[in-house]
Amino acid sequence: MRILHVEAGRHLYGGAFQVLHLVRGLAARGHDNLLVCPRGCALAKAAAPCAEVHELPLHGDADLTMITRLYRLIRAFCPDLVHLHSRSGADVMGGIAARLAGVPVIHTRRVDNPEPRWWVALKYRLYDRVIAISDGIGRVLLSEGVPPAKLRVVRSAVDHDRYAVPVDRVAVRARLQVPMEAILIGVIAQLIPRKGHRVLLGALPDLIATHPEIQVRFFGQGPLAADLQRRIESAGLAAQVRLAGFRHDLPEILPALDLVVHPALMEGLGVSLLQAAAAGVPIIASRVGGIPEAVREGENGLLVPPGDIAALRAAISALIVDPERRRALGAGGRALMAREFSLAAMVEGNLAVYRELFGSGGLLRG
């Protein structure tokens, strides 16, 4: 099978990392991949061994010229289908280009942001199938009017073996400037409002007053960096809370954490949660979107209402004082990831959707 993939993300995390796992898995199974991605993005280099990579200018939702560029590639590559992996214009412009070329098209939805019903009615007519990466996103799509016959759920996956390895905790903590006796809390997320960093900052002053051994590191980058730094300093938290930036050594860092906190206000699933669970780190997260699929209450973490500072504070405090419970939740996370979030299951799930389009079910446009 020949598949043309379109991914508009510039950084190799979240959805782009899932695309990399998918094209690797497809190539290993004998399928041909052509990957369209932005010029100079990290995904292009990483995917080169398993896909023919075309780096194009992808300028977002208003880039109508993207239709022409993608149409020409589709006509030249002659794929069996087009798989659109992101928004930022690639979803709509890619859908139009595929329809003009007469090629089946699939769109993967990775976020649970609501869309107006009138827009859903127009946009999702472009796709033969829509893949949601969680049941939570699937419920949002159904509520907005996406036909059930078009919708499939294929969960994101994690390279379990990459994260389930022993690490030198002393060396990692020294790298992060964290004492060995500290309780090290990590937040792994883009620095954007919906990830809820401000909620955690609201809970920390009282927590640190009770548990002065707490150290927090925000791993990620984004437009909120300056605002978060100001809030950290104004709250007198600079000695305990630091912005650690985007890290390529996350597989080494994660097992050295005592706790991952993800206070998101909206979340499709949360790849960083899958990574943390695979590394055996207990998680405290918001009960929102697809998070309860990745964080099972009492199995690999605790869930709190989104935006509830008091509940978040109480959950963190409960795990800080109970190392045995933290260890049990960490072990539960490793087992859950191996059981339900394997790379093989994700690749086979996508392949099953591809094969549907050429099986007895036929195409379901409109």
TrEMBL record:
UniProt keyword list: Transferase
A GO BP annotation: carbohydrate derivative metabolic process
InterPro entries hit by this protein: Glyco_trans_1 (IPR001296), Glyco_trans_4-like_N (IPR028098)
A GO MF term: glycosyltransferase activity
Pfam families: Glyco_transf_4, Glycos_transf_1
Top-level taxon: Bacteria
Domain Glycosyltransferase subfamily 4-like N-terminal: 14-162
Domain Glycosyl transferase family: 173-334
PANTHER family: BLL3647 PROTEIN, GLYCOSYLTRANSFERASE
Protein's recorded name: Glycosyltransferase
Species the sequence originates in: Thermochromatium tepidum ATCC 43061
